[in-house]
Amino acid sequence: MRFVGTGRIMLAGAFALVAASAVAQSGGYQAPRHGLPAPFLKALDPAEVIRYADAGIQIEHDHPATWALAEHRRLDKALAALQPQRKGVVDAYVVAVALDSDPNFGKEAREAARVLGRRYDAAGRTIVLAGSDGAADSDLPMGSPDHISAALSRVAELMDPAEDVLVLYTTSHGAPLGIVYNDADQGFGIISPTRLAAQIEGLGIKRRVVILSACYAGVFVPALAGPDTAVLTAASSDRTSFGCQADNDWTFFGDALVNHALRKAQPLDAAAREAAALIGQWEAKGKLTPSQPQIQIGANAALWLAILDKRTPRETSASVGRPAITLLDQP
């Protein structure tokens, strides 16, 4: 079997992104498909690509006339539903994002929101940005660079930066320069480490847990790490991760961390270590190059994480979906 990393990126010439092809869904509904290469990047010098990524890239094209209005309404509804913080309470605001329209990412982001929201008592303070889950067109605002910006800005308005925490989970394809946005062939973008760090810092969000499920996601650690930050990534800065096929229910990282370790009443660092060990077992079984998930938790972050982790329900919730490990059994 050929395994595709979570965000397998192919570099040709200066730089070319080729998104993974979506598999046709069984039954009547078919999720959006990738077919075209990333627009215009082949013509750019690598330094120019980095400059655009740091400044923010999002391209939308070939949408019907009603698309922008529908997206605006979905986003407005989701942002309006977020509740303000509770004075004297360390509130967690969960932002779960599928930056690719392939159904596996949509499924993962939805369940990550449920697991993290339950774990950190974030009912009413959770927003999901995601495309289809494979069953029908999405009724959620799409995960995109612009929508992440809007969601983070709204969270910054509602939270008290002195006591509240942002919990950001993103899942998508990745590249050595950042995480990739792909809405079939109609939307494309890149979020670089510099871009994401500047946005979070610019909004005054000091306490944050950032979890990035993508190939090469370790490239974000130097830009985001700090005393009040916890960063978990699916891979190191020079490694791919696995399980991003469009018809899967989980990536390896999402399954190990969200679908298993974070469902248990254990601290975040223990959950991260458990997930890394489980991924290592799966990769060894498949004779795959280790993805090397990264875990970095600042000294101050450990203090407020201890408060949040105490809220985790004592009962372990049940895993859902087809396990990522079943990929290893396919011919």
Count of separate DSSP helical elements: 9
Q: Which blocks of ≥5 consecutive residues have pLDDT under 50?
A: 1-26
What's the β-strand tally?
Answer: 10
Structural class: alpha/beta
| Rg over C-alpha atoms, rounded to the nearest angstrom | 18 Å
Secondary-structure element order, as H and E?
A: HEHEHEHEEEEHEHEHHEH
Strand content: 15-25%
Assembly category: single chain
What is the helix content? 25-40%
Give the strand line-up of the largest sheet.
3-2-4-8-9-10
How would you describe the shape?
Answer: globular
Spatial separation of the terminal alpha carbons: 5 Å
pLDDT averaged over residues:
90
Described by strand count, sense and barrel closure, the largest sheet is: 6 strands, mixed
Describe the overall structure.
By secondary structure, this protein is an alpha/beta fold. The chain is 31% helix and 15% strand. The chain has a 6-stranded mixed beta sheet, sandwiched between helices. Strands 1-7-6-5 form a 4-stranded antiparallel beta sheet. The longest helix is centred in the last third of the chain and has 18 residues, at 268-285. The chain is globular, with a radius of gyration of 18 Å.
